[in-house]
Amino acid sequence: METPFTNHLSFEHIYEPAEDSFLLMDAIEADDFWLRETVKPTICLEIGSGSGIVCSAVAKFLNVFCLATDINSLACRATRETAQRAGVIVECVNADLVKPVVTGKIDMLIFNPPYVPTENYEVASSNIAHTWAGGLNGRQVMDRLFPLLPELLSERGVFYLVLLEQNRPQEVERILQMQGLECQIVMKRRAGIEKLCVLRASKAQII
Amino acid sequence: MKLLTHNMLSSRCIKGVSVGYPLKISAKNVRLVNCDFDTDFTVRIIQKLDWNALWEAAESVGHADDIPKNLSDIDDYDKNDEFLRKVHHVVLEVEVIEGELECPETGRKFPIEDGVPNMLLNEDEV
Question: pLDDT by residue (tens digit) across B33-60?
Fold first, then answer.
């Protein structure tokens, strides 16, 4: 997967792509065959697209129509610029998680959430806090999304989520399995002090 | 905002709204862009579309003549190159740059600035 340029951006108010972003891209790239043959995604949605590096790379790699939401309007602008520079279509909506997105259409959902465990008051306390502060166990923001997944995803839909070890990946797996999604940790990587992984939760059959 | 994006958005997230779809478009500035046409991709997109919502959206930005009001009027649309190119044009090449989306039930307006709809709600609306 080609890494889109982001050197036109300033990272004062948006998240600068880092190891977690690249891990997510690598995990999707590793599923290349399965995605093309089984999921056959037409519409992809990235939540919290930030710089736009992941959705722009995915749009190019899989030839999908990409939607992106971000709660920070500056991130929406950054995502548009990055997509434009990469020569791909990514449509941005300034929104909280997936609130305005209609149900049953999303074939591929991507989320690199604010996963760092913090005090709850730190969550959403500024543009940049939105990108990392995750509240109790780093789960406060992602936990709001989980109940919406079965309705949001199309019948073959798949969800890729970045997690930190402190987010209790096994517990997240159990929550998503109870919603009828097939779950698997598809990639793990240590980045400095962070033990990161990517969880895949899918309605489509896993080969 | 492309009309394909509009097709995927609702205001159901507002407290008390039951359907919130389709959102009405008032466009102040519409731009046409060029996108590469791909037959297979366009067929797959049509299968995802709410056709009524697309037609209403096309009408509100002055492009209703490009597509039929009912998809069932077109036989074997997946083999109809002329039709597929028109759909491709309406869903991907027509962009609302400035304007508003409006909730069909409450009249709540969501501004579109620089092509990006602002769908954020206040705390008392959710």
Answer: 999 999 999 999 999 999 999 999 999 9
CATH assignment at residue B66: 2.20.25.10
Name residues 56-75 of chain B within 8 A of A (Cβ): none
pLDDT of A12 higher than 90:
no
Range in A9-18, A152-161, B69-78 the model is least confident about: A9-18
Q: In angstroms, what separates the C-alpha of A13 from chain B's closest C-alpha?
A: 18
Q: Exposed, middle or buried: residue A10 (CB in 10 Å: 0-12, 13-18, 19+)?
A: exposed
Q: Could you tell me the residue ranges of all domains in chain A? A: 19-40+98-202
Model pLDDT, residue A206: 63
* Pairwise CB contact (< 8 Å): B117 & A80: no
Q: Count Cβ neighbours within 10 Å for each residue of A47-62 and write b for 16 or more, e otherwise.
A: bbbbbbbbbbbbbbbb
Could you tell me how many residues make up chain B? 126
Q: What is the pTM of this model?
A: 0.96
Number of domains in chain B: 1
For residue B42, give its domain range: 3-114
| ipTM for the whole complex | 0.95
CATH number of A19-40+98-202: 3.40.50.150
Q: How confident is the model over A73-83, as a mean pLDDT?
A: 96
Q: Is residue B59 part of a domain?
A: yes
Q: Considering the domain boundaries, does residue B58 fall inside one?
A: yes
| B48-61 burial: b if 16+ Cβ within 10 Å, else e | bbebebbbbbbebb
| Residue in the block written with tokens 């930190």 | A164
What is d(CA B102, CA B110) in angstroms, rounded to the nearest whole number?
6
In this structure, what is the dihedral angle of CA atoms B48, B51, B55, B61, given to the nearest 10 degrees? -20
User: B94 CA to chain A: closest CA distance, Å?
Assistant: 13
Report pLDDT for A207.
52
